[in-house]
Design a protein that fits this description.
Number of domains: 1
Distance between the termini: 38 Å
Largest sheet: 7 strands, parallel
Order of helices and strands: HEHEHEHEHEHEHHHE
Number of strands: 7
Number of helices: 9
CATH superfamily: NAD(P)-binding Rossmann-like Domain
Structural class: alpha/beta
Strand content: 5-15%
Helix content: 40-55%
CATH architecture: 3-Layer(aba) Sandwich
Strand order of the largest sheet: 3-2-1-4-5-6-7
């Protein structure tokens, strides 16, 4: 092991993961803990967060993970998420804006309330997370150390999907926020990148499939099978697949990378 690796293994690294108690977020939480991070799980449900922490404590991570409840669509929640990192672990190194929701509707059926909900949850939350993390990074005397902001976009943020028009629009917006923040914050040694999952075997895709059956007919699982049939790697993505890439973004190996939104989809879209 090199001196640099020794130093990195001894150095405390602290991350906040919004929506970190389940799905892709839980995969990211699990991987960051394996990587040696201390993690704040920031999620809407206090009970779900506490359950996730209890499970992780039983796996040997006691003292390295805490949960804090809050609504990611509200700016004040992100300030509390950051404060939980500082209060429990002394600092912040990486902020992962993972929380989000899907809406499955034709654009003709979208309402103002629908658009308000999905943009507040998916887009405003990313902006507020960027702001809260940056405020904390500016308070820390980190010298030349690179700090990280990592946002959840989607393959639908590169090419929009029918029935997912509003969702796609939010994921395009996240790519824009990621690029602009990267340009604004790079001189402060803060990188901002995004990850763009494809078809992941989580509750969200079960929900998408169910709503597509309601709209277009067919049987449960038909649309998941239809869309996953185009994956070059021949299988549905797992949260661990996404987490492995986020692990890279959260590591020093990605220190020279910023403003990017890479598709990690097993080969669905080639752009």
């Amino acid at each position: 092991m090199t001196k640099e690796m020794d130093r990195m293994s001894e150095e405390k690294r602290v991350a906040v993961v919004t929506g970190g108690e389940r799905g892709i977020g839980r995969g990211i939480t699990d991987q960051l803990l394996k990587d040696g991070y201390y993690v704040v799980i920031a999620n809407r449900s206090k009970e779900a967060g506490e359950k996730a922490v209890a499970e992780l404590n039983a796996q040997g991570y006691e003292g390295k993970v805490v949960a804090v409840a809050g609504d990611a669509s509200q700016k004040e929640s992100h300030q509390r998420f950051v404060q939980a990192a500082v209060d429990n672990f002394g600092r912040l190194d990486t902020y992962i804006n993972n929380a989000g929701i899907a809406q499955i509707k034709l654009l003709q059926d979208e309402t103002e309330a629908d658009m308000d909900e999905i943009f507040h949850t998916n887009v405003y939350s990313v902006l507020y997370g960027i702001q809260a993390a940056t405020d904390q990074f500016r308070k820390q005397d980190d010298g030349d150390k690179i700090r990280k902001i990592i946002n959840a976009s989607s393959i639908a943020g590169h090419i929009a999907f029918d029935m997912l028009g509003a969702y796609s629009a939010t994921k395009f917006a996240i790519r824009g926020l990621t690029q602009a923040a990267a340009k604004e914050l790079g001189r402060e040694k803060i990188t901002v990148n995004a990850y763009c999952p494809g078809i992941v075997g989580t509750d969200m895709w079960d929900y998408i499939d169910e709503k597509m059956v309601d709209a277009w007919g067919g049987n449960k699982g038909d649309y998941l099978k239809k869309y996953s049939g185009s994956i070059a790697m021949g299988r549905v993505e797992t949260p661990a697949d996404v987490a492995n890439y986020v692990s890279y973004l959260a590591s020093s190996a990605s220190d020279y990378m910023t403003g990017q939104a890479v598709q990690i989809d097993g080969g669905i879209q080639f752009i």
